[in-house]
Amino acid sequence: MKVDLPALAITLLIGAVGGSVAAALEVPLGYLLGSLLAVGVTAAMGWRPLGRGITLPVRLRMSFVPVIGVAIGGAFTPEVAREALGWGGSLLGLLVFVPMAHALGYVVFRTGGLPRVDAYFSALPGGLIESVQLGEEAGADVRLLTVLQFLRLILTIIAVPLIFAGVTGHAVGSAAGVQMTGADAPLTSRDVLVLAACGGLGVWLARLCRIPAWIITGPLILSALAHVTGWVQGVPPGWLISLTQVVLGTGLGARFAGVSGAMLRRAGALAVLNGAAVMALAYAFAMALHALVGESVSAVFLAFAPGGLAEMSLIALSLNLSAIYVTTHHVVRIALAVLAAQIGARWFLRR
Hints:
The protein is mostly helical. Helices cover about 75% and strands about 0% of the residues.
């Protein structure tokens, strides 16, 4: 497909300015949230800067996601591998959490007047692409479904850093000057080549093997192997992580282009109610499971919060939490949500 390069440049500029301003104001995860807000408002209001619409190709956004997987893999150590043996309790907890979160969302959306098929697929706590595709095949309103699923991601991405900042009483993550371990360590040419290979080969191999969330899990696995075996010591630099946040936030904000105000208001009210209910459920699971798995309440809460895999992993990196723990749980959550989408699609189609 042809890309409007001037429109893309303007969109990225708006995202970069929004992210930079938010970071300067010490907004938690400022580059991500600032770019999302700036581009999202511009797109939703229908503004056309210099006569150009807001646009950002999905392929460009996805090309930055492997950076997160490579960065997370850099945190993998033998100590983390030993800790992983104790994660069984919370991984099993997802088998309960995902159906409960789905049921909560379904009740909220049905009470809000949505038909059953729309409510079922809109309430799925993960697997956005699969939820929209299978929901459309089952007869759901694909536009409303897409907006609700994106609002789930965006509201979670916005709420989680603000919740951490509110609970701790001070700035967190990048807003507090915290950077992921090794983000400023100098990289040799060999390190750059190895990390780039982990990203590219990881995506290709994981997609070939049909691993869930292949675009991030493949680079993560290869990066973890490279670090454990001593092939590489460093991780992607801090500026690249910040750039990744801007691109991801800009991509999410651009999704609001063409959405009517009436649909956005209706979907927004329902999404806020659903988000509050599911976040409260995630916190309850975090309180119940953190001692069992030996992780902090914050880490378990972040592992269960139903945001995007890439964005939740970025938050974990920014907060110096156990990013591998968080990412592993989100991969399982998405796999369970996709399974529920497939089951629901078959059921609705039969009826």
